[in-house]
Amino acid sequence: MNPINRHEELKKVLVQYLLTTHQTLSPTLNAERKRLLEDELFLDAFIEALPMYKTWGPVGQLQDADLPNMSEDGRRLFKEFIAKGLMPDDRRMYMHQHEMLRKALSGQPCMITTGTSSGKTESFLMPLLARIINEAVRWHPAAPEGTPDMDPFSGRNLATYNKRRETRHEDRPAAVRAIIMYPMNALVDDQISRLRRTLDSDEVHQFLDANLDRNRITFGKYNGNTPVAGHPKKSDGSPNTYAISKLKEEVTKYRQAYSQLKQKRDKSTADEAEKERTEELMSFFPRVDRDSAEMIYRWEMQDTPPDIMITNYSMLSAMLMRNTDPAITDDKSDADIFEKTKTWLAEDRTNNKFTLVIDELHLYRGTAGTEVAYLIRLLLERLGLEPDSEQFCILASSASLQEQEKADDFLKKFFATSRNFQIITDESSRLEIRPGTDQEFSEPDKENLTEDVLIAHSGFIRNRLPAPAKVSDFQNRLGLSDDQFTKFMEILDASHSPDIPRYRLHWMIRNSPGIFASACPDAATAGDIYRTVGTISQQKDKLVDENGNYIYEILFCEHCGTLFISGYKTQMSGVMPTDALLPQSANLEALPNGFSETLITREKEKNAGVFWSLPKGFKWMINNRARVHHFCSPLTNGNQENHQEIPVYAMAGSQGDHDGNPVWKPASLNPKTGKISLFPAAISQDDIAGLYYSSGRPDSELEKAPAMPPICPHCGNDHSGNKAFPSPVRQIRLGHDRYTQALAKKLFSTLEEGNAKKLLAFSDSRESAARLSHGIEAAHWRDILRSVIYGELLVDVPPAELIEWIKDHPRASDWEINTFIIQHNILNGEDWFKNLPKVKAWAQNPDLFSLKNITNEAWSRLQDIGVCP
Question: How many domains does the chain have?
């Protein structure tokens, strides 16, 4: 995949999407806006060289000194186990991963601060798993082969907690050996998928059956999404049937999803890549059977805490406050998790150790960081541990805590410990440029770029990019033409050689803040009668143009594309006080940020107004109630050939009345002062004639009335009864969430099919991340639904040839129709003959559809492709 080509493709697709979404009635404005989006929406792509790290070697080469404080059996088992999933044999450890493993197992608190894609997750998972495996070699055997496989996930067994542990005969002390804490649920979900591949695959199960006497290293995700909230029993001791029912629904959903994917993988006749993609999808769902390592619901984890628990600080804080209800017999709660872990730690103060992993530690600063620091102190107290206890093992990762002295001081205060931290960086493990590789490309090399050529010039390539730079600048430094640079990027993408530099591209894309222009069209657009505004820009802070005309935000009707001028209201004093429209709010108390936070389409009528300018060359036609009912172009030499009339939907009510009915009033706008003059007031030469919207409410109620009109005066589309979208008049822009969703969807669509087709989206806040996640999922579901229904409509429509023949032969018998189908080789003719009543009904009324049949077929199709209807 050439990322440069993808950048251009994304730019083209996104611009076309925005133009289609906000198509206006003015062709010149549409063309101008296209140029504006292409020039200003996308900044130049930047390219950054990724660090290249020294490798230590495969896990199998670890010696006794590399795995301190482990037994001989523990070391052997750990090396074999890690090679089954987390660190396969063909993968070599980085130097910093080896350093983290050795120092963490020696008992030192460690934090790793290497960059993105440097294997930080593996760096803290390896010592965590090493400690658990070192203990696991002493566990008693689990269920012997041939033990009856009682279903631990039946409704009855769900109500009695962990039947799975009972049927597997696991008798080791149930306790949390490690907690991995993440700042957000998105990272929790990513981690749980990795642990499923590491601890719950078929290969790992076979290994554990053979080497750990069929014991499992259990893990569980405990956050707000973990089923199911509440107690398993009511206060009277009877089962909580509602909660049990909800849990059974969740378990059934998980089981069906995993089972379907497993069948697809096992029965797949596709290539290995297809099977790998299916296995990747399987890691997104828990494995629901007796032998799985993952615990999926709260009651099970409360009864038998998992060896590894993944959570976030919000849930951990809530768990520490939950206790059993003394009024409920045999009640379970989150407190049981901590009590059982505390008991396990007290049983062996020398060998039993609790590991706390904090990922993205740099996020825990300020007030939030203080809260988490005290949360850790509370957790240790509940576990009966002191911060300096040798039973308390600390592992952390961060991308920004680099200064040794300041970082060490921060870590000691954060974890309330006096122990010195080992801060592992990537400085000592970065690869240096090999001598003899820093020569420039020769002309023959440029014309015949290959992987070998890039390896031979790897030093030269790396030296051309000491810091992030524009892609175009990087190309010029390499001295490559456009075609040569395209070839260069393709080789980089396809190569797996460690001697070729790796790069990351940064695409800077911003959302359009809207369209802004004056109310005075340019002479160059005189041929476009619907171009009622001047030169457009995306600079919302510019107040006036070069001629002193106010610059307003331009709105449009989403149905017909008519342009409107919007502005913030103020009162102009005089004999007859009148409104004036300003580019920004005149409310000084709202400055500097207050007014800019509210979209003008969400303002109330007291604060904002909307004006529709007359199309060029048109004039009002006003009836005896002083209401415009037409815009009319003038006659040319008495000739009506080019005469046009545009009806105006001015709505009920009369000009000047406050009867509560919205109305468009004949008025004029002064482009330099913003003054609105209502008909029949005199209009100056500079004024622009048009219509001014009024809700018809008295002044005392304007604070409650929306500023946006419920009906378009041009096309008449009325949104009065639409609570979700009460006005057809919109901004020429997408909201932040919708724009991000569109960008994510378009970006994902440009990626090539294959195993590497993934998209991970981050947001600054949990709320934004939740909206983004739900928005992308909902938009994707709607697109699939539209596609499926459209396909069913096509299938549901008989061939046009058959319909026309039946129309021409209305008295034809079924036998004659079947003869026609056979003689003319009508596609799917047998199916249409079986459904002749529908075919005849279609011939009589081509608009006739059976909604029930279409939806039933669509629902079945959605289920077939794995989408929940």
Answer: 4
